[in-house]
């Protein structure tokens, strides 16, 4: 199985680094003139897939917006994953799972094993039960050529109370980044184990170059700019995936307008880290 990092490098070269979030929250459903029900969820999500999955390298559905409709919503998510991958996009499922032992293994089986109906190219995960709690997911990524993006420095105002906390000389975020650096050691051209670092975190003293990719939420409508990315990430930006949802999704429901918005986002970040 080709490692996720290799496939991601190819996707960035072929299609660009912009990551489109497929997040059908209720406000956007209403902006599109839709109701807050499963039929509207399906129409919204699959319209976005039709528009953007053939032209961007990575799409990122947020699982919670589908789960809130129960099994029928998860069935829509399965179609989003399947149809996005069929259109050539890598699917990074934003689930932020994190647990221990058999539960962590079950999450790995659900999202990273290719025999699962929810199998994706990569997922997000939380390391705050201890980085070793993610070992089943790490091993599943190695076995199946999948990727893992681990929370490190998030933009939410509550994040620093945990992520900036210190154990001696190191912050919690720095410890997470060190673990990722070890997992990616020797990978070429880029590792399969990434960090989640917000586009609006401001200054950081952390070394963000872990040899792996960086998922960068908060670009666009949430305030992150290209200048912010260059300043925060420096050379590490060469493997950054700036992610935006509302900036693109508000262009719907017209498919052509959605696609054009995605292409504009891609063009805006094409030269990062050059």
Strand content: 15-25%
How large is the radius of gyration?
17 Å
Based on secondary structure, the structural category is alpha/beta
Mean pLDDT: 95
Topology order in helix (H) and strand (E) letters: HEHHEHHEHEHEHEEHEEHEHH
Catalytic activity: orotidine 5'-phosphate + H(+) = UMP + CO2
Domain Orotidine 5'-phosphate decarboxylase: 17-261
EC number: 4.1.1.23
GO molecular function, one term: orotidine-5'-phosphate decarboxylase activity
Strand-helix topology:
Layout: H1 4-15, E1 19-22, H2 26-31, H3 38-52, E2 58-61, H4 64-67, H5 71-86, E3 90-97, H6 101-112, E4 122-125, H7 135-144, E5 147-153, H8 160-163, E6 166-167, E7 170-171, H9 172-183, E8 193-197, E9 214-217, H10 226-233, E10 240-244, H11 246-249, H12 255-268
Parallel strand pairs: 1-2, 1-10, 2-3, 3-4, 4-5, 5-8, 8-9, 9-10
Antiparallel strand pairs: 6-7
